[in-house]
Amino acid sequence: MDLVTRILEIVHSKRYHGMDAHHIAKQLEMEDSTSFTLICQALSQLEQEYTLFCDEAGRYFTKEQLGYVIGELRINPKGFGFVENEQESVYIHKDHMGLALDKDQVIARMWENQDGSKEGEIVRILHHSITNVVGTIRIKDGKKYFLADAFVNHRRFHITDIHRSDLVHNLKVLVQIDRYEEILLGHVVKVVGYKYDPGVDMLSMLYEHDIDPQFPQDVMQECAKVKDTISAKDKQGRTSLLAEQIITIDGEESRDLDDAISVVRLDEGWRLGVHIADVSYYVTEKSALDQEAYRRGTSVYVADRVVAMLPQALSNGICSLLPRVERLTLSCVMDINAQGEITHYDLFPSYIKSCERMTYTAVNAILAGEPQACGAYAHIQEMCTQMLALSKCLRKRRRELGAIDFDTREAKILLDQKGRVKDIKVRERGEAERIIEDFMIAANECVAAHMKWLEIPSMYRIHEHPEPKKLREFARIASMLGYPLRADVNHIYPKQLQALLTQAKADEVYPVLSAFMLRSMQKARYDAQCLGHFGLGLQEYLHFTSPIRRYPDLLVHRMLRKYCFEQTSDATQLSQDEQWMEQAAVQCSARERNAIEAERDGDDMKKAEYMERFIDQEFVGVISGVTKFGLFVELPNTVEGLVHISAMRDDFYHFDENGYCLIAEHTGRKYRMGQSVTVRCVDANRYKKQVDFVLVNTKGNSYKGDGTMRKNNDSSKQKGREKGKSYRNGKGRNGKRGYPR
Hints:
The chain is α+β, with helices and mostly antiparallel strands. The strands form ten sheets. A five-stranded mixed β-barrel has the order 3-4-5-7-6. A five-stranded mixed sheet has the order 9-8-11-12-10, with helices on one face. The chain has a five-stranded mixed sheet with strand order 13-20-19-16-15. It is globular, with a radius of gyration of 28 Å.
């Protein structure tokens, strides 16, 4: 037993009440100077790992024993905040923040108040997450100052180069923080553009999320050296699939075509080929391209642009499976029986020539039997028919395994040439979209099982079992909506949740029920260990099918090449790759969360911009959330706004926590989730990314003729909205197809 383990055994023992280094040495019977030095080194290591903490008396404790919590600080614009991790969320008063900023990794000391609520104070900042801040240069009375877009805990900035002549009024700039003090010291690193110019709002939001549309010079220089055609040398060691009928199916606007498919009918089922762009052939390990792709983690899709993980010459060029040109691929060819089970498969490097660049619209038209589409694509009509039949078998198998289809609505934001919102619609998902989803999931599962059982270093996509506490909350909501969850929340199966959604499918409360179920789930993430995917009902799963836009897929390809195709057997290299997968999984999960947040903010910004033209107009919507500070109402086009409780003046409303509804004190009127209401849009602000409604046909819910809310002394409106951000279900796209798997 090593020394660290022996120390931890003492600290975790039931009778332990705190010891300093000398007492621990005595307990271990290691009091000579050499042994004492080793103990001090071990204790220092445990402190650096934040496993143990030393109090003012020099005694060592675990964070639980001292009441410490480690997590991310999220600050509300009102000044208070929460330290959050996977297990808990601790309230931090604005006077207990210290010099911490939003999103900082911190250690907080926690205590319990008399009412049972938990509160804390920041005792140490582990890592500053915000290094760059976007804001606006303002000039008042001849003096320049910098106004940050993001909330920085009421801190002022001193910009060392603010007197530059090119920094004019209402100019958006990116500032790098050089020193974290009471007054933040920084300098301008990039001019984003004039605040009111088209596209600057979205560009500012991207920089705010540390997403840079431009690639570094060394990356572009390296990219320029990549040839734009396939040579005979590139084909060596690869299987030719030029004779196969292979097509791509993507959205009309897609340029990064990283997956192609082939389907052939067999006597006892089908042969499905999923052919993925071999990006790892061009993006080599530890190259400038690879390091930049690792830093980005994923492509980001916002309303007016795509910020790609790889430069355009790769993502839209040599790596994109364009029609009628040869491209390098990794192929997963699976024989699948009538029960949707893979009976045989083969994984190998290949090269293909896609015969058609199909769109979802065109394939849906073929499947619907539209004469024009069937005539134009007669040569692949039979293949499309077989694709649909195979897809249904795969989907049936997944349903039997318990895969949960949340079927959430996704916004499609239509812009004009100047980047202004023309319309917002619900993105339609036809059979073609479902077919591609089914085929990609089948390939991802197949590759995951292959790598798991061969014990190859890999990065898996995992979705852990939901926490019982959150499930109990969902069960209460589901019962209130008329769909009781008859299951043990401590031993839930995905099939039980799926059955509940299926039962409610035709009900108007289905979107609310589905959204709340989604909120009760754990967040899917990346991990070096294969821990299964609860939502899909699968034991093995990873991401293999989108290496152009996701770094985890690129790593999976690299490991396949190294350990399957080239059969590397170096034990040292194997150990290094296993450690690298653990590190990279943390980075990729973090960058994915950041991208989702940016996409969500971008959608919220454009939705608010769209609603600015509808001030004082009425709409029918559905209550998508009820809290003590008001109602969230979602319109049919997915726009969501807040009816703050201060605007509900016909009565005094109480929040019924058990029933998740607001109840009027005098009339007994109730507002609950899933209820249809008529609202009037009274305010919309693209820069704040928010929309405000008031209820219509309710006395006292008045508004001015100019469409703005009457002033109200209740200062909790913004506080409520900010808390609501974590309350609501995020609806941003997780990639170009919009299925968050």
